[in-house]
Design goal:
The chain is an alpha+beta fold and about 160 residues long. About 35% of the residues lie in helices and about 25% in strands. It has helices at about 1-25, 50-60, 140-155, and strands spanning about 35, 65-70, 75-80, 85-90, 95, 100-105, 110, 125. The strands form two sheets. Strands 1, 2, 3, 4, 5 and 6 form a six-stranded antiparallel β-sheet that branches. A two-stranded parallel ribbon has the order 7-8. Strand 3 and strand 4 (about 85-90) form a beta hairpin. Helix 2 (about 50-60) crosses helix 3 (about 140-155).
């Protein structure tokens, strides 16, 4: 019986490895995470100003500074050592999203425009014909993940309106 179980495991592993290339192009955009919904109770809906304030104060915890602002959108910049990143955060009372703008010393590479998928953002970065669109240092992802956690903590700390 153990021999059959090993054969089944081996077959499953082989199938998974064979199918992996089929899913390689479905990897989420590494530098534009999915939108973050702000969770609020029906009787305590957050305002756009409260979400904006949570973004700015959460960003400050990790050293992000406000570079510019337009209605419903902030541009933040972070300089850490020799690295620099700039992101745009469109926001509303329902949530926010993070969009890559540009970076330096974070190894961002973009494909040549004719190779990038239609509608794929191609700001900043060097053109690398061998690069997959959107490759960037894992450090950037860590910075963005930390920012999201800090913003979410600020949102959670907003007191309920009475």
């Amino acid at each position: 019986m153990p021999r059959i179980a090993n054969l089944v495991r081996c077959a499953a592993l082989s199938l998974a490895l064979a199918a992996a290339p089929c899913f390689a192009d479905r990897i989420l955009d590494p530098h534009n995470p999915p939108p973050v919904n702000v969770v609020s109770l029906p009787d305590n809906r957050l305002s756009t100003d409260q979400v904006r304030g949570a973004i700015i104060s959460g960003a400050a915890v990790h050293g992000w500074i406000l570079k510019s602002e337009a209605a419903g959108s902030l541009v933040l910049k972070l300089e850490k050592g020799k690295s620099c990143a700039e992101i745009r955060l469109p926001y509303s009372a329902d949530g926010y999203s993070i969009e890559y703008v540009t970076s330096s010393n974070l190894n961002y590479r973009r494909a040549a425009p004719e190779q990038a998928p239609r509608g794929y953002p191609t700001p900043g970065g060097e053109v690398d014909p061998d690069a997959k669109p959107g490759s960037i240092s894992p450090s950037y992802t860590d910075l963005v993940d930390g920012l999201i956690r800090a913003i979410d903590a600020r949102v959670a700390a907003i007191p309920a309106a009475h």
